[in-house]
Amino acid sequence: MIDLLEFETWLALPILGMIMGKTITLGDSDEIRIIQLSHLDKGCQTQLSEKLIESFASWGLDYSNDLLLNKPQLLLISIDDSSCDTIRDALIYSDLALTILNKKLYGFGLPQFVQWDRRGGSAVGAIYKNSTWKPLLRPSQTLNPAIRNLEKDSWDGFLSKLLQSQLNSEIEQSLLSNLQWEREALMSPNDTHRFAFEWVALESGMIEGERSKGDFVKRLGLLANAPRGADSLTIMKNPAIFAVFHANQNPYSNTWKDLIEEMYECRCNILHEGATEVTSIEIEPLKIDWFYPLAKYLNARLQQLLQYAISQNILTLKDMWNFHAISFMYSKENPWIEAKNDGNLVKFDWSQRRYPN
Q1: Domain end residue (candidates: 101, 136, 171)
Q2: Where does a domain end: 136, 163, 182?
Q3: Global pTM?
Q4: Average pLDDT for the chain
Q5: If DSSP codes are grouped into helix, strand and coil, which group holds residue 209?
Q6: Environment class of 313 (CB within 10 Å of its CB; exposed 0-12, middle 13-18, buried 19+)
Q7: Higher-confidence residue: 295 or 354?
Q8: What is the pLDDT of residues 126-141, one digit of tens each?
Q9: 129 and 264 both lie in a single domain
Q10: Distance between CA 335 and CA 321 in Å, rounded?
């Protein structure tokens, strides 16, 4: 029988993917315990079951028809308090504990949470405090407007060519790879992975062999209307292009340069050092959460450049970047050259999650 009075606050998280008998403990001091509901006293079982039903319902799940009702398996972890940050961190460490448990099971089973909103810091489960169980509820979901008929555009043409296996050029294959990695970023619940996948999407649009910090500052800086070095000279030598550039100078040009360099270093820590928000002091969770929309912003512009190149029958990334990117950037074909909305994005106070006044 588990004595809940041992600690003041507990998280109980239903898990799937394994069959157990006796209580399983993990950690030298049994910090994590995998139990069955029957391992708790009768009164606690009844109250916890009721709260789990509420938690399941908030996630749109039917607890009553689930195998868990017959013999639910629960991960128990004690926590210091019931704050949102503490619960979020406890969920991350509990998931790592399940990864370790899978190693100890030698692959016989894949223990996992029933549902987990990693970014929102919630999961199906319940919290015990002051001798009372309360459900963990799914954060409220924002309702999107109903979708009406969409006008045909270049994306439809790209999709048709994909379905007909007609994406033959390097540019077309680059855009396909970009979209696949962007989708991985959208679907990932992990902040570090989301940024890393979005950055790989950006890399899919780079010329082969261009992977240095300077290469990214040059190419991505141009997309942010923050041209550097040789690109600046090319712009100044062309009166028509320079006129557009001069009329739409980016006051955050140097800020973008610094941010691209910082994101590149973060990318290297992740891809080469295996850094995560848990394992490395180099990865600040709130900051990398901000890096993702920055990378996404740049990637949206890269995708438009790639689409423009396809429409102009440009076949290679080298031709696109070296001979057409600047003329596209500073022309009427570019829908965002006059955009003035990146100030809020680059001046965002990530540590306080606050936009500038």
Answers
A1: 136
A2: 136
A3: 0.75
A4: 87
A5: coil
A6: exposed
A7: 295
A8: 999 988 999 999 887 6
A9: no
A10: 18
